[in-house]
Write a structure and sequence with these properties.
Strand order of the largest sheet: 1-7-2-8-6-3-5-4
Number of strands: 8
Largest sheet: 8 strands, mixed
Number of domains: 1
CATH topology: Rossmann fold
Order of helices and strands: EHHHEHEHEHEHHEHEE
Shape: globular
CATH architecture: 3-Layer(aba) Sandwich
CATH class: Alpha Beta
Number of helices: 9
Helix content: 40-55%
Strand content: 5-15%
């Protein structure tokens, strides 16, 4: 069941969910919360599947990554951060590298610098990008030491999940973020994302519910978040914490 989220959290409530390093970084960068952050960050923190529909530039992608970074850093501090893929980010955009640099690699770099300045443990979160332009050497490196956050496109994800050995790396993935869903609804790229979802039932023994392109896929003038209590798909941007190997189409 999909329900519209009505509770907008305060800045203090959202920051209170974060590790001190992540909290200080965020507070130093942003004077307030965008609507996606105020509505969705606590839900993602609670491992809810969330769909975010809001205008471009309202912080949807950072909203998704903020909790992922925080949780992985918490694992690192607890000594439980393993060499495996925890999060999968799928985007159909050609400007994939630019978007990831702004919303993921730059925040991680700034957090590392802040950690050094504060004498705190430096985040050791690895990010890997897999697309048609990825070199054979980088692909082999990712197979040997998988990134904690795996960045890819619909086409590349389908190819990766067709390789049995590499597919095993996704068996314990906690989050999947599918960005710009409206760009893939009703075309071949959406079909490519749907194929691994159906294959998951035979490879992982787990069912995967969800719709690739639900009808709630129109952008609103104001930010709107919806939460679904089953594994689900979304439109503009959504995040799921219940994905399993071979089942990428369950969020965003």
């Amino acid at each position: 069941m999909i329900r519209t989220v009505t509770k907008q959290h305060t800045r203090d409530e959202v920051l209170g969910l974060l590790q001190p390093l992540v909290r200080e970084w965020f507070a130093s960068k942003f004077p307030g919360l965008t609507e996606p952050q105020a509505f969705a960050v606590p839900l993602i923190h609670e491992r809810k599947s969330v769909l975010i529909s809001s205008p471009t530039g309202s912080g949807k992608t950072l909203t998704a990554f903020l909790t992922v970074i925080n949780e992985l850093y918490s694992n690192q501090l607890a000594g439980t951060l393993e060499d495996k893929i925890y999060a999968v980010y799928v985007s159909p955009l050609k400007a994939l590298a630019n978007d990831i640099n702004r919303n993921l690699e730059e925040p991680l770099r700034e957090m590392r610098e802040l950690a050094v300045a504060k004498g705190l443990p430096v985040p050791e979160i690895r990010v890997g990008v897999r697309s048609g332009d990825t070199s054979p050497q980088e692909r082999q490196r990712q197979a040997r030491t998988p990134p904690h956050i795996f960045i890819t496109t619909p086409e590349s994800l389908t190819l990766v999940l067709s390789a049995p050995k590499f597919r095993e790396r996704f068996s314990d993935a906690r989050w999947v973020v599918v960005d710009e869903i409206h760009e893939v609804c009703g075309n071949k790229r959406g079909a490519l994302l749907s194929l691994p979802s159906s294959g998951s039932r035979s490879t992982s023994g787990r069912s995967s519910a969800g719709s690739a392109c639900p009808r709630r896929s129109r952008r609103s003038r104001r930010s709107r978040s919806t939460s679904r209590d089953t594994r689900t798909a979304g439109s503009a941007t959504s995040t799921s914490s219940r994905w399993r190997a071979g089942s990428p189409w369950t969020s965003r």
